[in-house]
């Protein structure tokens, strides 16, 4: 599943540069994650990098975008093909 950023976000700017898919962007009030680009770092890392660096632990799994590891890998492969 994709991840999302809760309103507990303090806009510290550490998550955005860690995202290998450029899924994290600055929203109107807090950072946001584009679920069409979020692969939970599948294909890049063993764990979501944004969750690893978030100082307030405000990046949980998004229950509205449930995906298996296989679906996340397929999404990763589509993203990489589109960037090539």
From TrEMBL:
Keywords carried by this UniProt record: 4Fe-4S, Electron transport, Iron, Iron-sulfur, Metal-binding, Repeat, Transport
Molecular function via GO: 4 iron, 4 sulfur cluster binding; metal ion binding
InterPro entries found in the cross-reference section: 4Fe4S_Fe-S-bd, 4Fe4S_Fe_S_CS, PSI_iron-sulfur_center, YfhL-like
GO cellular component term, pick one: cytoplasm
Domain of life: Bacteria
A Pfam family annotated for this UniProt entry: Fer4
Protein name: Ferredoxin, 4Fe-4S
């Amino acid at each position: 599943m994709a991840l999302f950023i809760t309103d507990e976000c303090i806009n510290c700017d550490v998550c955005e540069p860690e995202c290998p898919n450029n899924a994290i962007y600055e929203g109107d009030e807090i950072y946001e994650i584009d679920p069409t680009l979020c692969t939970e770092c599948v294909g890049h890392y063993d764990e979501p990098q944004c969750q690893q660096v978030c100082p307030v632990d405000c990046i949980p799994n998004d229950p509205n975008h449930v995906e298996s590891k296989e679906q996340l890998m397929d999404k990763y492969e589509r993203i990489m093909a589109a960037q090539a």
